[in-house]
Amino acid sequence: MPKKPTTTKEAIIEGAFRLVREQGYEVLSVRNLAAFLGCSTQPIMYQFPDTNTLKDLTYQKADAFHSAYILEGNDLLEIGLRYIRFAKEEPHLFQFLFQSGRFSGLSLEDLIRAPEAADILSAVSEEENLTREESVSFFEPLVALVHGYASLIANNAMEYDPDAIQKALIAVAEGLERKK
Q: Residue 176 and residue 112: Cα distance in Å, rounded?
């Protein structure tokens, strides 16, 4: 009878998440993960013969972590500010989630309508008292602005200034309110 694996799928996914969080998605390989976990490559390959599955599950864990983080915001402004702050606090995870090529070929509207954005789009609909279609139109410029700030900050191309960012988000949201 073969020996029962001591390195579980859950432990491997958690390790992959921590590796990406600490060092970036570029280093996520079976060999690097094994070194990070202090084991051989064999248990990882046993649990994940297809490394794309490991990467997908690691991505899902990072996405759930990100969603929980930003949805702690009480309103649309705070959700946007938390999205940007996440990029500052977790640049490797931000880059893994949004700059690793996973969304190549999709439009901004596709991303807004994606199932992963449903909770945030519902919050917009509720907070602004809009239909789903109106929410998409209202949310699109805000997403571009918030994601632009977050991308610049995650890549150290811009200094994180929460007060200036908040003023800019409020100004854009007020402009969108007038257009409704």
A: 17
